[in-house]
Amino acid sequence: MTAYVPFFVALVAAFVTAVGWVFTYYSAKRREDRTRRLEAATRYIQRQVEEFYGPLFNLVHQIVICNHVQNRILSGRKPDGERCLSSADADKIQQFFHERYFAPLHAEATQILKSRLYLIEGIEMPESFYRYLRHSLQEQVQFALWKELGVETKYVEGAPYPNEIYDDVKAGLDTVMRRHEELLDSAAREADARSTATATKRLQRVNHVAKSKSHILPGIDHRTRGCTGRGAHIYLGFIQWVCAAPVNLDVRPWAENGS
């Protein structure tokens, strides 16, 4: 019966090794899947910032600033309270601002809402976006009628500019930026965990090799003594440097010379 003991010991060792290999494989695969998901989510949020919220916030901000500048110019008054501009000059200034600033800015913002709306955060578009599109398109149509056909349509009440769009765009931008920061932190923790696990495995393999050569490397303590992090990497580099030296297993000068 005792003759079968080595066989059973070898069988158990092989089984434990296989289980360890399977566990290691699936653990690594789960980490890789999680890493891929984190990377995909990070890329999507970067697209949200670069292609939707970032440009749209910048355009809305420019529209607000241009409107403030135009209102200050049009509302200017002399010390006696009389308006600085005549009605004709005021119309020219409004036309100038529309052609030079408002029309191009509205066109860019409308194009973003048209082609990049799928990057919006959440499943519903804010109400201010609908109101902005109505305001932009109505203004464009009425201005084209006046300039190209000479038809005055001031009797049609214009759709007011939705001031809430600034807050809605900024809230969406802040949300995706926070999510982006959280994903970057998660990715950094995943990378640290993978680096630590890899370093530990390499250290174990090197320790095994070092112990197998301990008869030709006397005086070297091959135990890690609980080294982790940077200390483990330094120890690993030293052991690899020592063990990488060419060794003649047939000649052992320390044993023969006693040195």
Secondary structure tally: strands: 0
β-sheet strand percentage: under 5%
Q: In total, how many domains does the architecture comprise?
A: 2
Report the biggest beta sheet as strand number plus sense, adding barrel if it closes. Answer: none
Describe this structure in words.
- The protein is mainly α.
- It folds into 2 domains: 13-212; 213-259, no CATH class.
- The protein has 6 helices and no strands.
- The chain has helices spanning 5-74, 87-115, 127-149, 164-212, 230-243, 253-257.
- The longest helix is centred in the N-terminal third of the chain and has 70 residues, at 5-74.
- 8% of the residues are buried.
Short key terms for the protein model shown above:
73% helix; single chain; mainly alpha; 2 domains; 259 residues; 6 helices
Quick rundown:
The chain has 6 helices and no strands. The chain has 259 residues and is mainly α.
What topology emerges from the helices and strands here?
Layout: H1 5-74, H2 87-115, H3 127-149, H4 164-212, H5 230-243, H6 253-257
Helix pairs in contact: 1-2, 1-4, 2-3, 4-5
